[in-house]
Amino acid sequence: MLPIQRPPLPLNEQDRLEKLQQYQILDTDAEQPFDDLTALAAYVCGTPIAFVSLVDASRQWVKSRVGLEVTEIARELSFCAHALSQPDKVMIVPNTLEDERFATNPFVTSTPNIRFYAGAPLITPDGFVLGTLCVIDLVPRDLSPEKIAALQALSRQVISQMELRINLARLKYQIHQCYDTEKVLRGTNQRLTQILKKLRQTQVQLIQSEKMSSLGQLIAGIAHEINNPLNFIDGNLNHVSIYVKDLLNLLCLYQNYERNPNAEIQHQAEVIDVNFLAEDLPKVISSMQMGTERIIQIVQSLRNFSRLDEAEKKPANIHEGIDNTLLILQHRLKHTEQRPEIQIIKEYGDLPDVECYAAQLNQVFMNILNNSVDAIEESFFNSQSPLAAKSKGQIWIRTELGQNYIVVKITDNGAGIPEAIQKRIFDPFFTSKPIGKGTGLGLSISYQIIVEKHKGTLSYNWSLD
Ligand SMILES: Nc1ncnc2c1ncn2[C@@H]1O[C@H](COP(=O)(O)OP(=O)(O)OP(=O)(O)O)[C@@H](O)[C@H]1O
Ligand SMILES: [Mg+2]
Question: E-strand spans in 153-226?
Fold first, then answer.
């Protein structure tokens, strides 16, 4: 018996094998398009068996099959491996028993007893033969030129399908890469946005702390400067009061014992209306004392408001903070030509001292109360607003004690915050006020102080409850 003839190796075998790897198709699952083309080949050629096979270094691997359940065949026994060497035509073996290459092949000599073989090469666009689309019969026979042409056309479809498949895989890979890149970009973008936000916050904080520290220093300086002469006046007023009392007593004694003063004294007494003077002078002094006490209170409030010395959290009386702030805002509440006085309605709850940065909380109260005054003034300006009818500006300040928090509600009867801008009021530099009037920092700073520094919440509520 003749030995089996090993199929010859194509000249470009190494490159061909590399090309085959690139298609990433070996050992993959069945796919409908290949199965359809294989079935079509068997049908067109009228054979019971057909394969789409690819030949790698050691075997013929079958991608799709009709009529014979086989997955791979050793390369030396492969019919298709012979077809690789004649890329320009369909390899036809009309009778395997009469072909010395296959007569002793075990697939010929025993089951399935192949007798007829026709394999159309699968040629890549750049000319590599990767395998065949072949049809097999168990009886010797031939193929008409039309069927050969059809088999070739189908083999081109198999290659197209392989191209499609690899392009699809590449596309998927690229999409995946795009997706990854987009993810990275989105991450970078997010980080940049955060950095930007942080930068703006820092900027706001810098501006504000600069603004507040100079305001605080100014207030503390003025309070200090007023304090000395004030103590001087306050201290001396007591003496003045006693001296005046003594002098008036003495005057009284004179009047009692000197019944007939000389004409000049009598004339002068009438000119100055000595009786009225003696009656009014103690009153004047006592109102001067009251006025001085009031100034002392104001100076004390100014010092409390600035509280420059307090960098640490300390227990503080919130109501005192609000009152001190109101005192500083006093000039804004007074009656003006454009509007009547703004009334402050305090509804203070029973609050314990609260651990806080008192000076910063005072800033918050000041920012919010200033906004209320602005809003009320604007409402007065706008004659259509309901406030004009009421013709009275009012600000309510309510405090309540919660479980482990306190609530401060500041409400005004201005026109309210238009819905369109409600979402933006805490944004740094957002202002609806004319240029030069608002910096748009008040609420964003207040937000930072309440939310970040004190872990509280700062919110806006439309309803008047
Ligand atoms: N009580 C309020 N009534 C109506 N609108 C308000 C009130 N409080 C704030 N707003 C709106 O929110 C905006 C932002 O307030 P914010 O205090 O941050 O800035 P501003 O008052 O405009 O300027 P700044 O306080 O820096 O001088 C205001 O311009 C205003 O439109
Ligand atoms: Mg403001």
Answer: none
